[in-house]
Design a protein that fits this description.
Radius of gyration: 28 Å
Distance between the termini: 89 Å
Shape: rod-shaped
Largest sheet: none
Order of helices and strands: HHH
Number of strands: 0
Oligomer: single chain
Number of helices: 3
Helix content: over 70%
Number of domains: 1
Structural class: mainly alpha
Length: about 70
């Protein structure tokens, strides 16, 4: 009688189940992609709305700055 028998576990409880591990890996990969995709979408939405509310034109400012460098 081993320690695992005394604790109520069998040796089959510790066997690596590859199918179950693969499905857990796929689940966490999908959750991570969903999380970062949601964060990117939300941040783009917020930044776009904030810049739109204050009428900030980043690309126009960058182009004007570059044009100003070459005027001299």
């Amino acid at each position: 009688m081993g320690l695992t028998d005394l604790m109520g576990f069998s040796d089959n409880d510790f066997v690596y189940n590859q199918q179950r591990a693969h499905s857990a890996d796929v689940f966490f990969l999908k959750m991570r992609a969903w999380f970062w995709g949601s964060c990117a979408t939300l941040s783009a939405l917020l930044i776009g709305n904030i810049l739109g509310v204050f009428d900030i034109n980043i690309m126009g400012w960058i182009i004007d700055s570059i044009k100003g460098l070459f005027k001299h």
